[in-house]
Amino acid sequence: MSDRTRNTGIMNRFDLTCRLVARLTHEEAVIGGIGNTNFDLWTAGSRPQNFYMLGSMGLACPIALGVALAQPQRRVFALEGDGSLLMQLGCLTTIATLAPNNLAIIVMDNGIYQITGGQPTPARQADIVAIASGCGIAASHWAADEEDFERLVDVALTTDGPMLIGARIDDTPGVGATRRDPSQIRERFMQGLGVRQPI
After folding, report:
1. Beta partners for 164?
2. Residue 119 pLDDT more than 90?
3. Which of 14, 96, 99, 150 has its C-alpha lying 20 to 30 A from 139's C-alpha?
4. Rounded distance between C-alpha atoms, residue 105 and residue 121, angstroms
């Protein structure tokens, strides 16, 4: 464990996701990464502005970046796990270079590939927040506890980004399960962003 994470508490992913969703009052977009991050987002409050990824590991941040660039007036959050982010670390330098001021990344870090059997990820030997900072995302922080997480979300909602929030979490399984209908997820999200009218 690095010095940066030594004083952070281990939290619960579903609890943090509920805390995030409770603060979304202006139709902010949320891109939920695959697996338990996705399941918790669905159960915490299914919203038209949520996009639930299915099988596309590592792409929550790139998709969120695209939404943030396409709709600069809308706050956008990427919810990602540590294992998924490690598959697409290059996106952090792209985000830092393009510097969308409406994008925040929340990384739920439990150090394992939980949904495939709990295999350890290389994140156990790495500091994701330090990596993001080194990639140029200066506003990169570990959440010390639940209260600090809420404070950091409020910062992401009210100040210019990009921003990354790291949260150390336990290995509690995800809550519920996303309805696995890709076309329905896509259509509802596009309607939620106001780019397609309901049929």
Report:
1. 105, 140
2. no
3. 14
4. 19
